[in-house]
Amino acid sequence: xxxxxxxxxxxxxxxxxxxxxxxxxxxxxxxxxxxxxxxxxxxxxxxxxxxxxxxxxxxxxxxxxxxxxxxxxxxxxxxxx
Length: 81
Prior knowledge:
By secondary structure, the chain is mainly α. The protein has one domain (about 5-75). It has helices at about 5-25, 30-60, 75. The longest helix is centred in the middle third of the chain and has 29 residues, at about 30-60. The chain is elongated, with a radius of gyration of 15 Å. The two termini are about 25 Å apart. InterPro entries: Uncharacterised_Rv0898c (IPR020311). It comes from Parafrankia colletiae.
């Protein structure tokens, strides 16, 4: 997956996240399924951003960015902010 495809995926995930948050704040939804989906979206977004950082680092080190892989959800969520 190249950077352009990763950014397209991020855009799609962010749009879904905003839609769910908007519907939840307006009282249209309030279920565990939507809460679980928001958590899943946040984790997937973090993995996408992690993959972009790893690809950038690989390029900077003269390596093939296509060899970069995102960290697991557990690893990415454990990063210090």
